[in-house]
What we know:
This protein is an all-alpha fold. The protein has 17 helices and no strands. The protein is globular, with a radius of gyration of 21 Å. It starts with 5 loop residues before the first helix and ends in an 8-residue tail after the last helix.
Amino acid sequence: MLSLNYKSILGVALPMMVSGFIQSIVLITDASFISRYSTEAFDAVGNAGLLYVTIYMCLVGMGDGAQIIIARRIGEDRKSAIGRVFGTSFLTNFTLALLFFGVLYSFLPNAIIGYSKNHEIALLQGDFLRIRSFSLFFAMITITIQAFLLAKGKSMVVLYAAIITASSNVFLANTLIFGKYGFPEMGIEGAALANTIADGLGMLFLVFYLIFSSERKEYQLFAYFKFDLASMKELLKVGSPLMFQGFFALATWTMFFTWLEQKGQFDLTVSQNIRAIYFLAFVPIWGFAGTTKTYISQYIGAKKTAEIPIIQKRIQFMTVLFLAITFHGAVFYPEALIRLINPAERYVEKSAEILKLISVSIMLFGFISVYFQTIHGSGNTLHSMFIELGTVVIYSICCFLFIKVWKLDIYWIWTVEYIYFSLLGIASITYLRLYHWKNKIV
């Protein structure tokens, strides 16, 4: 079981943060490449990318469910159950990937044309999604393996996979978007193809690692590739609320950007600049989120719940500290960050103003996210889903009022982030104080 000291906590979180940082750099690099190709392609990749991530988060939710269960079994010292959870997670994610592929490849490209104001951007989004949708089959394997590794606290392997994915993506994006080294100029389709190939390379690394690892035999990870009803019910009970929760959260943000596209291209482009930088802030938040889930689940499984407040305080301290390191540019040099994404001067000033505005909300989220992830780690994922759902309903109403009814300036529209993070924090803290969440059996 994982130790409670700062060194051990950081040992789990740091590789995930570095992995997240690498992915953020990839996102920034992709945005930088495509913004220099054309503004329409930049906006299309941003919105289509959100649609892809919305579907992708459903697979991540099932992966988080598997991570929580495996970590609990490790805490309970029930090695024999881990291979069954792994096999069930693989088959469940494969089934979901088939379903979601059909949605992304066949349904969404036509649906986008129906609701978009800018026909050119809508067509480009469809071109992107038809290629990007194939990544789901790589993602479902990657997510299954990552769930096991993160539950074990072996986040360094996940980092290596991220490095392979990121480095190959940067090279391929630059090559295929602009047509270098003898390749044809593919524009937005080149961006999608680069993302997809890079995801495949990262997945292959994890597969080869697992095949030659000692854990494969120790936990019999490849011995249960069959539909086991009891194991599937166990996974769906924990993972399906996380799947819907991830979908609701990202679908709401996708809706936010869709309404901005309907409002006007200037507001959309400014917001896409913010979105690309935004993910830098989530580097420590995501890294410590996975760490929180693993620690909480292991310690509840070991019946050491008295240690949980210590876990929370230490992770909160480190989250805020690393947020100050990774996101300080939003306060001190926002214009420079924006120009990395999009050098067009007409968007820089407004984008920088918004980046400063939301910087405090990110710090708030870093602090309260530990409480929300504690609910996840305890296995009370149905309750966390209801918290998320209630929060996004109010967030959506505010977005509708700000954008559609009151038609506020884009600067004030982005204040909805404070509403979302504050509500999520209040609801999470209230739940942890009023409910007997430590007694959840997973």
